[in-house]
């Protein structure tokens, strides 16, 4: 049976589709935006004024994936562009409404294609699979839900705990999930035949919080991969010299959910000559809070993905004390770049005891303690960096493809 992958956005759907393509099992990838030389949007951009054309082409390039056969991709920008435009204009409420409505319509469109071309297995992602999985036209399709985040109820409970101690940090980047979203999640859990999860943490939260009968028996661990072409490097890892500060990096949304408050509180407790911190990614905490730490922190903000590897290789360790994730791919990207890792178990599948510290919970004290150990023991830091690079090699794309092949075989697809 061939497999149809569908996601109106991106996440890791391109890697999933490529794995299935290389296994000879991809029916098609249905998505919102996909860039290739013959793309109608790219042809339209060429007719725009030069400056605007460059901006549009640069934005489209974010949705390119050259290794995928363009003939296997069905791009439907009408299901993604309106939401993105609303978000860029700052109309967050409208963007949220468009996301919900267009995801439902996108799922129904996928159901129509599957009904006409089936029987197929459907591989969908959380937030955009409910309408496709419950449509009568897909009743004969095997349904795989790729759950990319922990159970929504687990985050809402964790958010309440954060609010008790760091409520002013929550800002706009860490909203609670709505009752509607939680209900939709359970619809997807119920309709799916298999639910693949990127980390044991995600599986644990679903088992603990979802009331869907039999949901635990549907869960399968499917660890993510990273882009080795971009992040893996054959360059030797230059040790941190005894006298220089250890350069710590946070990469991702700078938000309370990601635990940046614990990292900033920790860095304040360390001598300025021992440690330097860089924040890389969109900022979602109030400016007045971040201003307290500007003398100790380099705030880079978001950058093009192609710039991230070079930035990573300028640092010695990644600190990612997240409260609630699916499985953060940035952990693997940093490890492949030769960084030791300080993370929480909730951050996902990343470091081992050889390559970093996996903290039992997000805490400024625990983060500070781990940072101090790397500062004080440069031999440990170097050994962890070397181990991180070696361990990341086992999580390249080939391993992900093999895991998908094994899953399909076990499920008889």
UniProtKB/TrEMBL annotation:
Domain of life: Bacteria
Signal peptide (residue range): none
Entry keyword annotation includes Cell membrane: no
Keyword terms: Transferase
Residues of the Glycosyl transferase family domain: 241-389
InterPro entries: Glyco_trans_1
PANTHER family: GLYCOSYLTRANSFERASE WBBK-RELATED
Full protein name: Glycosyltransferase family 4 protein
The species this protein was found in: Qipengyuania xiapuensis
